């Protein structure tokens, strides 16, 4: 018996990997986070499978279902939004599985920031503009941030930020980031990426808070900040395809260069 932690992606059922779809289709028990994962994502579960929305359940409730499946020798598809390695709350589940000697595997999924970039039609690592992305969140009452992992520290790098779980803290994000990025730094708030009602709100650090307030968005949004999100056309081409730059798969510069 194995518990499969499956990344469902941000919402679009077609962004499931082939492996994820196959495993969901084979497991007699399927637990999915219905507040973040559309029911259509687990629609491929086999006929007669036990399919449960874990949104109203506690950690102990879900673990009890897993233990019952283990006693019956049944595999479990534990379906999470995005990629399970990012804010998936799987570490505490794994701790209980290990304590009970239950096997598990992790199947990665498309993270929200990648799906957002795809929907926006752009690359997030543009030569000489941005080459790094910090995936972080703001500190909340429920879970504090580790020492050193502050928005202020990340802002000092000037790199692109993908801020999770922070749409209600835009005033604080604005206060912390403007001194480092400038008031006119581009911002995109990606709401419910991959769902039918997805929305992308573009603005700057100076005006994004009011734009989000006007749309009445209070949850399920990713905040992306950085110069790369603006209209950029004068960047340098990558050296990867530069005929004057040989590399291991093209060891000689192109003739005539």
UniProtKB/TrEMBL annotation:
Tetrapyrrole methylase domain boundaries: 2-208
EC number assigned by the record: 2.1.1.133
EC category: transferase
Keyword S-adenosyl-L-methionine part of the UniProt annotation: yes
InterPro entries: 4pyrrol_Mease, 4pyrrol_Methylase_sf, 4pyrrole_Mease_sub1, 4pyrrole_Mease_sub2, Cbl_synth_CobM/CibF, Siro_Cobalamin_biosynth
Family: Belongs to the precorrin methyltransferase family.
The protein's name: Precorrin-4 C(11)-methyltransferase
Protein source organism: Roseovarius gahaiensis
Upper classification of the organism: Bacteria, Pseudomonadati, Pseudomonadota, Alphaproteobacteria, Rhodobacterales
